């Protein structure tokens, strides 16, 4: 789930076009749903916050 754009070519139009094409892809939507489900199964942000607090505390 990435698109590479050389710095010299990173105009607003190029970035907008790349992002639009990226998120319109069926594979991206499927992979995003998979990652979302995995994050929720792992406890999501609540678990992440708990782990950070444990490390700090």
Report on the structure:
This protein is an all-alpha fold. It has one domain (7-56). It is built from 3 helices and no strands. It has helices at residues 12-24, 26-41, 44-56. The longest helix has 16 residues, at 26-41. The chain is elongated. The chain starts with 11 loop residues before the first helix and ends with a helix.
What's the short version?
Helix content is 74%, strand content 0%. With 57 residues, it is mainly α.
What average pLDDT do the residues reach? 89
Oligomer: single chain
In whole angstroms, how far apart are the ends? 35 Å
Give unreliable regions as ranges.
Answer: none
Radius of gyration: 17 Å
Quickly count the helices.
3
Structural class: mainly alpha
State the major sheet: none
Number of strands: 0
Question: Which features would summarize this protein structure in a list?
Answer:
57 residues, mainly alpha, elongated
Layout of helices and strands:
Blueprint: H1 12-24, H2 26-41, H3 44-56
């Amino acid at each position: 789930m990435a698109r590479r754009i050389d710095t010299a070519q990173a105009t607003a139009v190029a970035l907008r076009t790349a992002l639009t094409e990226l998120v319109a892809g069926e594979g991206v939507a499927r992979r995003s749903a998979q990652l979302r489900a995995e994050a929720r199964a792992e406890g999501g942000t609540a678990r992440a916050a708990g782990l950070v607090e444990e490390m700090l505390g």
